[in-house]
Amino acid sequence: MGLLPGWQNPCQFYIKADPGVHACCEHCVFDGYCSIASAIAGIPAHVEAEGCQVCLSESNPSDINRVTVSKALWALNQTKDWQRWKEVSNKYRHYLATYKIEIEAEGPGTELHLLFLSIGFSPGGECKCIQLAKEMNEKGSDWCEANIDYLAQVIQDEADRRGFVSYLAKFGARPVIRLAINRARMKEAKFGVDA
C-alpha cells in the first residue's frame, strides 16, 4: 500500500533513540500516524504504540487488517464525516467481523463490543473489553441494566488508560451500554437468543 504522498517514515529515528518507545513498521509516519489506516480513511489516522503492536501480531501484519480498519473508522468518527465513515465501514466490515469470534456468544456484551468496533475502538494488548463483554453476556441484559454504573466505570477507566477520553467525556458510556442492552433484547425477542 505504501506511504501517503509527502509523508516521511520516522521509525528509524524512534527505534535508534529508544527501542521501547514505539513498536512500528514502515507504515508508521511522523507523530504516530499509520499510513495504511490513513489511506483507508482518506485522512490522517493516529495509532498508539499498543495499536501498532496488535497490528504487527495480526495474521496479515502491516496491511489492511482489523486494527488498521478500526483506526481508520476512529479517525473518520472524529471528523463526523458520516458518509465516508459509512462507506469505509461497509467496504471493510469483514475485517472487523473477526473480533466477534473472540467472544463466541450473543448478548449485550457482544452488542457493546460491536458498537465500539463500529466507531473505531478496538481491543488490544491488556484491554479489558473482551473480558467485560464476556461477563455481560454471561450475566445477561437485566444484570447489565442493574449494574450500568459499574459497567460505565470499567469502560471509562479503560478509555482513560488507552487515551480515548475525549469521546467518552463527550458522550459517556451509559448511552452506548443502553443501546447494546436494547439490541440484545431485540435479538432475544426476534430470534430467541438469550440476552
Describe this entry's structure for a reader.
The structure is a single chain. Helix content is about 65%, strand content about 0%. It is an all-alpha fold and about 200 residues long. Strands 1-2 form a two-stranded antiparallel sheet. Strand 1 and strand 2 (about 35) form a beta hairpin. It is globular and about 45 Å long.
Keywords:
195 residues, disordered N terminus
Topology:
Layout (H helix, E strand, L loop, with lengths): L10 H7 L10 E2 L3 E2 H7 L7 H9 L8 H14 L2 H15 L1 H4 L6 H11 L10 H18 L1 H15 L2 H7 L2 H18 L4
Antiparallel strand pairs: 1-2
Helix pairs in contact: 2-4, 3-4, 4-5, 7-8, 7-11, 8-9, 8-11
Summarize the structure.
Residues 1-23 have low confidence and may be disordered.
Q: Structural class of the secondary elements?
A: mainly alpha
Oligomer: single chain
Major β-sheet profile: 2 strands, antiparallel
Spans of at least 5 consecutive residues with low confidence: 1-23
Number of helical segments? 11
Order of helices and strands: HEEHHHHHHHHHH
Helix content range of the residues, please? 55-70%
The fraction of residues assigned to DSSP E strands is under 5%
Distance between the termini: 41 Å
* Radius of gyration based on Cα positions: 17 Å
How many β-strand runs? 2
Outline type = globular
